[in-house]
Amino acid sequence: MAFRLSEMGLFSKLTSQSQLLEEDPTLKKFKLNKADVRRIKKIGNALLVVVVAACSYEIYVKAGIQKSKFEEMQAKAGAEN
Predict the structure, then answer these.
(1) What is the radius of gyration, based on Cα positions, of the chain?
(2) What is the pLDDT of residues 49-67, one digit of tens each?
């Protein structure tokens, strides 16, 4: 038995409610066209690349710091023995 929204009447309720909504003229200035959506996606992708690069750099720097601390500790331990 497959679960279907149309069998429960939920789908028909959702579609009938969306048909009752009228377009609000004050919201027209916020309406996006395809070019705006593409631009927003490009900006989002660029921000994602920047964030991933920054996180990767931070991990690289932290690993370098840890490595240098480890090497210093090894050098001190070798000098004491």
Answers:
(1) 29
(2) 999 999 999 999 999 999 9
Answer yes or no: pTM beyond 0.70.
Answer: no
- Alpha-carbon torsion, ordered 59, 63, 69, 74, to 10 deg: 170
Domain boundaries defined on the chain: 52-81
Terminal CA-CA length for the chain = 75
DSSP track, 3-48: --HHHHTHHHHHHHHHHHPPPPGGGGGG---HHHHHHHHHHHHHHH
C-alpha pair distances (Å), 31 with each of 18, 39, 44: 17, 14, 19
Tell me the C-alpha distance between 50 and 40, whole Å: 15
